[in-house]
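Database export, one record per block. Field names are fixed; values are copied verbatim from the stored entry.
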Amino acid sequence: MRTVPIPCLKDNYAYLVVADSGEAAIVDASEAAPVREAIRREKVRPRAIWSTHHHWDHVGGNDELAREMGLEIVGHVSDKGRLPGLSHGVETNDVVRVGDIEARCIHIPGHTLGAVAYFIESGGERVVFTGDTLFCSGCGRLFEGTPAQMHDSLGRLLELPGDTRVYCGHEYTQSNLRFAAHCEPSNADVARACDRAASLLGEGKPTVATTLDDERRCNPFVRVRSAQLRATLAIAPDADDVTAFAAIRAAKDMFH
């Protein structure tokens, strides 16, 4: 299996998930042209589009690419009528396939109500495509869901093995890490992650993919019990986890 990030729009990522046979799935076809060029360059045979949610900057190429290439379009069942070209609705634990690759679907509402992740184990490698739910050191805004839903969805993702690589929907890592450093200024893992991101971007490379273990160490949205984070953001030590998460999300929304 190969995973090929495709920069799209201003700061989006689409991906090719390539089986040993050369067959491929497209994750989040943000726009057609860059995806089409990556398909040509990588010499793959696309079979499906796996959409993580219905927002236009993740599905803008769906109709064009599906029409040109005869592709199935996968998304959450609740996004029927909202996700362009949806032809295969999925729920948690449904499996979608391309070549010898099987992806387990996980419903992760919060950013949108129909958000879905795709988790793959293949050849000793584990990857998860999280769209705009879990970012490198961040999480998506709550456009449709509640803090409780997003907190629960992040917890569901963190139940996956720690070495699972996270492929998210945007290149937001540096700004997310600035907020993480603000929340936990003594967190050495965050400082190292800042250096890593700066080095990769300086070389013109994407900051994806971190691992879920990296996120446990650096991501303020999954570190809701950190005493330093709570002190920095004036969250009561005895506040429950969802209350703390909501306060962290509100602080990030205001952070510049």
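Remark 1: The domain at 2-254 is CATH 3.60.15.10 (Metallo-beta-lactamase; Chain A).
Remark 2: The mean pLDDT is 97.
End of record.
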